[in-house]
Design brief:
- The chain is 20% helix and 35% strand.
- The chain is of the alpha+beta class and 274 residues long.
- It has a single domain, classed as 4-Layer Sandwich (Penicillin V Acylase, Chain A).
- An eight-stranded antiparallel beta sheet has the order 9-8-7-6-5-4-3-15.
- β11 and β12 form a beta hairpin.
- The longest helix is centred in the C-terminal third of the chain and has 16 residues.
- The protein is globular.
């Protein structure tokens, strides 16, 4: 735990001045030397939201899964099969005829029933889901990952190229729609290049440092309401390790062994508190 806290301290002192309370940054990364797979997410929203982690046990027809979010809605998560997902707000697009935004907890449903990226994409098509105000990233234990967007009346897929896939708040299919250029995307990409060039052994802690300019310290943004990074999650998909820091604090770090958590029979809710 001491090593973990040292990492989070290094991560948080490198933050930049915040620019938006609704920003989100997501990374799926494969270490080309070891083949290990990681995912990192920085979720920004209003600080007064009641965020929490939900862990659902395996049942006859559903996979065990962990998701994080609020208001009974998963913002991101991972299941026992190693399928990871996250979502980020994007400029609004016209709705696709015959498709709609989800009316239930979409992320939980996907994690409960899908084990691979391809299965997740098929689930969206089967359920006629097309988000017009956000895009989604899916990644699995095989090294397959994709960002799915719905732009100009069509589904657009952006598959992983090389060993990384980055998603922020602009549409990869239509950057001119807004939120582009994105300093967070550029910073993550640049820091990954520096990390790989250094020749040092890559692990989840070092990878997390590439998000140094993605987090946003809380500040008053609207009529006394404070916004910023609500939580940052770090997932070792290969070894099933999960870390989450609440409100950019190196003291509020949750550390979970997913193999252990997914073997439990009880439903769990972990409140995120200072």
């Amino acid at each position: 735990m001491k090593q973990i806290r040292h990492f989070f301290f290094a991560f948080f002192v490198s933050l930049v001045i915040p620019v938006s309370s609704m920003a989100c940054s997501v990374l799926y990364y494969i270490d080309s030397q070891t083949g290990k797979i990681y995912a990192v997410n920085s979720e920004d929203y209003w600080y007064d939201v009641d965020a929490y982690i939900r862990i659902e046990p395996q049942s006859k027809n559903k996979f065990a899964r962990l998701w994080y979010g609020w208001d009974d809605f998963a913002q991101g998560g991972i299941n026992q099969k190693g399928l990871f997902f996250d979502a980020a707000v994007t400029p609004e697009q016209e709705k696709i005829k015959g498709f709609s935004n989800p009316k239930n907890n979409l992320g939980d449903e996907i994690l409960a029933h899908c084990s691979t990226v391809e299965e997740a994409l098929s689930f969206l098509e089967k359920e006629k889901i097309a988000l017009n105000k956000s895009h989604m990233m899916f990644g699995d234990q095989t090294g397959n990952a994709v960002v799915v967007e719905w732009v100009n009346g069509e589904r657009k897929l952006h598959w992983i190229e090389g060993n990384k896939l980055i998603m922020t708040n602009y549409l990869l299919s239509e950057p001119k729609a807004g939120n582009y250029p994105c300093h967070r995307y550029e910073s993550i990409e640049s820091r990954i290049a520096e990390m790989e060039k250094s020749g040092e052994v890559i692990n989840l802690l070092k990878l997390g440092n590439t998000f140094g300019q993605a987090g946003q310290p809380g500040r008053e943004l609207e009529k006394g309401r404070v916004g910023g990074t609500v939580y940052t999650s770090f997932i070792d998909i290969t070894d099933n390790k999960f870390f989450l820091s609440y409100k950019l604090s190196n003291k509020n770090v949750i550390q979970l062994d997913l193999n252990t958590e997914f073997s439990k029979s009880n439903r769990q809710k972990i409140e995120l508190k200072e």
